[in-house]
Amino acid sequence: MIEDSTVAAQTRVIGKLRPQIKMSAWGSRTVLAELTGRPSPAEQPEAELWMGAHEAAPAGIRGTTLDALVARDPVAALGPRVAEHFGGRFPFLLKILAPQTVLSIQVHPDAEQALDAAPGTYVDRWPKPESLVAVTDFEIFAGVRAYADVRRVVESLAVPELSRMVDDVAGSRAPVTDLLVNLLRAPASEQDVLVRGVVSACGSGLSGPDAAAFDAVLRAAEQFPGDIGAVVLLLMVHRVLEPGDYIFVPAGVLHAYVRGTCVELLANSDNIVRAGLTPKPLNIDELLRIVNTDREMVPERPTPGRVHSFPVDVPHFQLHVVEPGEGAIQLPGTDRPRIALALHHPVTITCGDTRLELAAGESCFLGAGECAATVSGDGTVYLATSGMAN
After folding, report:
1. Where on this chain does Zn(2+) bind (predicted)?
2. Domain ranges of the chain
3. 5-14, 147-156, 186-195, 254-263: the lowest-pLDDT one
């Protein structure tokens, strides 16, 4: 049990963060550099900006790192109830994602699945539900289509081999799941025929409601020639989120982010199982063990007012967006650990007698119960908190 202490009660836990940049070929050489005020273009593609305490890339703060600061006094940083619930570990991870090419088809485990997996399957023992809010138009595939919709899409493509596979599962209790299994476990020669047929059909100038999805499939196939993932995308729901749109992606939901810029908030985990469209290792057996093809993804638009607080059904995190306006406004979540990220323009965060000036792209950490912090300025603040209060 983690116990409160007089030292914790006297400790001030507040300060600017030094985020970690994650490089990847699917990232951008300009987006993160420009959002954070650094020279552009960057020398390498920058895919993610991490603001959190994950062991793989903890943010710096006040001469140390956020994970070390939390470990030194979890009650001061997280508050007693959150520290107790999560065993003293920081519960969430805030990121900016900047994919310019498709980010692998993937799924993440829930808490039980992460613990039950074979040794070596995951890099940590935590679940990884996610949420995101679009900063620019953000193209994604998230969740799977109903069987009738899959049949309609496949019929419009008129690829005989794929049509037969769709017909073969028509009487199944879980036809889309069975179709996914059959695609991912098909022999390489059959996968090659399917991919060539789908690429030819998607590139034939088809119109109608699925034209944008077909274009995205075609781009994915060009980026990863011969990858069955391009066919798997046809089973998934294609969307282009508008700036401000929010979506929650629970553990188990199949998804692939295509291009754009978003702020992502997730549980403090880096557990990923990939099914395709990536040079990284795949784990088809584990993906099929944990995938959930029944969960529907429904984007949410911001609520009226300066503060938008998006609901989640997990205790690890909650995302709030604070828009600029006249005068200072109080930040939500005083009784929770918080990370505040400023975008587009500078902001000033005032916490008691402490003033933090955040330039666009800068972030800070506010410990639980630190103060009733306020924000002012022309920037938009993306505020990450735990999903549970102290």
Report:
1. 106, 108, 130, 255
2. 143-240, 307-385
3. 5-14
Q: What is the pLDDT of residues 124-150, one digit of tens each?
A: 999 999 999 999 999 999 999 999 999
Does 13 score more than 90 pLDDT? no
Say what the pTM is.
0.94
- Please provide the DSSP assignment of 258-270 as one string: EES-EEEEEES--
The annotation places the binding site for Zn(2+) at: 106, 108, 130, 255
Q: Name the 3-class secondary structure at 199.
A: helix
- In order of 54, 79, 93, 100, 110, the CA distances from 89 in angstroms are 9, 11, 11, 32, 17
Question: Are 237 and 70 spatial neighbours (Cβ–Cβ below 8 Å)?
Answer: no
| Tokens representing residue 21 in the block | 């940049």
Active-site annotation holder among 151, 239, 259, 274: 274
Q: Known catalytic residue: 274?
A: yes
**3-state class of 53 per DSSP?**
coil
What size, in residues, is the chain? 390
| Cα(180)–Cα(183) distance, integer angstroms | 5
Q: How far is the C-alpha of 355 from the C-alpha of 358, rounded, in Å? A: 10
φ/ψ of 168, rounded to 5, equals -65, -25
Q: Which residues contact 341 (CB under 8 A, 6 or more apart)?
A: 51, 94, 96, 263, 361, 362, 363, 381, 382, 383, 384
Q: Is 192 helix (H, G, I), strand (E, B) or coil?
A: helix
User: Known binding site: residues?
Assistant: 106, 108, 130, 255
Q: What is the dihedral of CA 206, 209, 212, 218, to 10 degrees?
A: -40
CATH topology of domain 307-385: Jelly Rolls (2.60.120)
Q: DSSP label at 288? A: H
Q: Which residue has the tokens 């022999």?
A: 187
In terms of Cβ atoms closer than 10 Å to its own Cβ (0-12, 13-18, 19+), residue 350 is middle
DSSP H or E stretch at residue 247 = strand 246-249
